[in-house]
Amino acid sequence: MHFMKISKKLLFICSLFLLQEFIFSQSNSLAREIRNINDKIANQSIKTDSLEAQISLLLPELQNALKANLKAKEQTDSVAIVLINRINTIQNKMRLIEDKAAYIDSVNFEILAQLVMIENKIVTLTNSFTEIYTLKNTKSSTSSPSSISPEQYKKNYIDALSFYQNGEYDKAVTLFSKLVQTDPSNDLADNSQYWLAECYYTMKNYKRAVSEFTKVFSFPATDKDDDAQLKLGHCYRSMGNTNKAIEEYQRLVDYFPGSEFYNKALESIKQLNI
Q1: Do residues 238 and 113 touch, judged by C-beta distance below 8 A?
Q2: In terms of CB atoms within 10 Å, which of 16, 58, 131, 141 comes out highest?
Q3: What is the pTM of this model?
Q4: Domain range spanning residue 184?
Q5: Which CATH number goes with the domain that contains 267?
């Protein structure tokens, strides 16, 4: 009985010793694990400190680079705005130049048209005076009977030309029209028709002038055909129909190569093509 008690004590003591050994062993193992963890934490702390140091070094450079980029962008935007404003200014100036050029072209065209009118007036007045002088010094033809005598026809024709020269165009139109209708076979009938058209042209009734100039070609053996052809070009030119004017001038060049107005027609074509 006493032996059994001793044995239990010994067993208990052994168990305590083993327990202490186990606890000591576990404590040592735990301490190693803690040391390893602490070492890892220390290493990570060192890396973190290194990264923080690098960041602290790089951060000012990054900030400076960002500021430089922002400043460059502001400068670029400012330059772009200046360029856009300059482009708009240039475009406005170009539009003004185009408008001025169009106005100058219009003025030049108007001046040329007025010069043509003045030249035409000088030529036609000269021709009318020449015709009057010629008629007054020639005898009237008696080749065709009519309700009006050749002498009276010539007198009325001279009167009509005088009305034209004096600027009394309505009287001239009335008398020339009457002459054409009274005796269209008279030697002066084609001239009457031409001067009738010339009256309308001088009065700037260009559409009616075109119609009357065209009728000149219906008279056989007329010597006013190239005159009328030139004036058709002048009429369309005055109406602003450049293409039709060139067409009429070209017709004179093609069909009347020996005309005294040949060079004038070529010059007119050149001016209108410019």
Answers
A1: yes
A2: 131
A3: 0.56
A4: 108-273
A5: 1.25.40.10
Please indicate, yes or no, if residue 200 is contained in any of the structural domains.
Answer: yes
Quick check: 131 and 164 in contact, CB under 8 A? Answer: no
Please, what's the b/e burial string for 82-99 (b: 16 or more CB within 10 A of its CB; e: otherwise)? eeeeeeeeeeeeeeeeee
| Phi, psi (rounded to 5 degrees) for 187 | -60, -25
With tokens 């007025």, the residue in question is 114
Instruction: Let me know: does 154 contact 141? Beta carbons within 8 Å.
Output: no
Q: Could you say which DSSP state residue 147 is in? A: S
CA distance 76 to 69: 10
Structure tokens at 151: 């002498």
Give the tens place of pLDDT for each residue, 39-73. Answer: 888 888 788 787 778 878 777 887 888 888 778 77
Please count the other Cβ atoms lying within 10 Å of the Cβ belonging to residue 183: 20
What's the domain count of the chain? 1
The alpha-helical segments, DSSP class H, found in 137-188 are: 150-165, 169-182
- How many CB atoms within 10 Å of residue 217? 15
Inter-helix orientation angle 225-238/2-136, to 10°: 140
pLDDT digits (tens, 9 = 90+) for 98-125: 665 554 555 555 565 555 557 555 766 6
Integer Cα distance of 61 and 239 in angstroms: 77
Residue 250 CB partners (closer than 8 Å, separation 6+): 265, 269
All residues at 6 or more sequence positions from 157 whose CB lies less than 8 Å from its CB, including other chains:
135, 179, 188, 191, 192
Residue 204 placed within a domain = yes
Determine, yes or no, domain membership for 240.
yes
